[in-house]
Amino acid sequence: MPVIIFLAIVAVLVIMYFVYNNREIALRNEAEAQRQNITNIFDKMWKVFNQQGQVADKYYNDFKSIYPELIAGRYMNRSGDAWKLIREDNPLYNNELYKMMQVSIEALRTEFATNQTRMLDIIRQHKTLIEQYPGKWFIKNKQPIDYVVISSSKTEDVINSRKEDDVKIFS
After folding, report:
1. 9 neighbors 131 (Cβ within 8 angstroms)
2. How would you class 69 by CB atoms within 10 Å of its CB: exposed for 0-12, middle for 13-18, buried for 19 or more?
3. In the chain, which residues have pLDDT < 50?
4. Does residue 82 sit within a domain?
5. Cis before residue 2, ω within 30 degrees of 0?
6. pTM here?
7. So what's the pLDDT on residue 56?
8. Does some domain include residue 139?
9. How crowded is residue 84: how many other Cβ atoms within 10 Å of its Cβ?
């Protein structure tokens, strides 16, 4: 009977070893996949911003180049007061491209932040797994997952100084 109890304890310990190490490996692999996902989202984000900006610039430049000719052609060689009574609708510059760009910026920045938050959650889970008992006894790879949040210099300055005094939006 004592041999069976001993073997049962050994079996449980071996199972725990594999369970905890497999969980650690799964979290490490998930973190690497998430790192690649963040890279992919960042790349997509900047390509969308850049290309939408190019479209808006092209539209603006095209509109700017044809508008004077359209207006000049409409009002050239008109004489008399009768023409003053006629109200015409002149072509208007459409700002929908800018609205679309703003929506893209907000949506893609949110997607990017959400994926960085997911990465931080994976790191938290991993850290908890390798630091808490009983898993701590069984896990052989206790190296933390290395990741630095992608942020702006402005944010870094605020975090380091612990002050955020620049509240003007347009300056």
Report:
1. no
2. exposed
3. 85
4. no
5. no
6. 0.72
7. 82
8. yes
9. 8
